[in-house]
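Treating backbone geometry as a discrete language has practical consequences that deserve illustration. No coordinates are needed to read the tokens, only the vocabulary itself. For completeness, the protein is quoted in full, as a sequence line and a line of structure tokens:
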Amino acid sequence: MTVNRWVPPLLLAVVVVTVVTVRADEPLRPGPRDRCPVCGMFVAGYPNWLAAVELEDGVTLFFDGPKDMFRFLHDPEKYGADDVDDDDIVAVWVTDYYTTRPIDGRTALFVVGSDVTGPMGAELVPLATREDADGFRADHGGDAVLAFDDVDPADIPR
């Protein structure tokens, strides 16, 4: 009888520790009511362009494309996130153009000025490798290939 009394609390402790320490290798997926904090668009309908920023407090912000994600990251206060700074961001995800799979936004490359458009028009096109970025530019044009840290507000299409 003593063993049974201790099993549930022990099981609960294992579950709590597991939930706290496990981190997904991919971002959460948006629900049907999740909106881009920049433009207000419902994002679930655009999985091929989805971008996400995971914050330390467990909140995930979803964007309809990298363009709006960069707008947010360059000026979070403008979009009602006065308390968000670089230290609060634990992950950045973008959707690779060719595979349509989530990739780490901080290691992705972005083609600026191509003939490919996203849900809101001209877009920064995310790609996983330099080879993919160069091949994409050969097929779709583009003014530049930029690393995450090199995207300046002036590079973000209107």
Observations:
- Residues 112 and 144 are 5 Å apart (CA to CA).
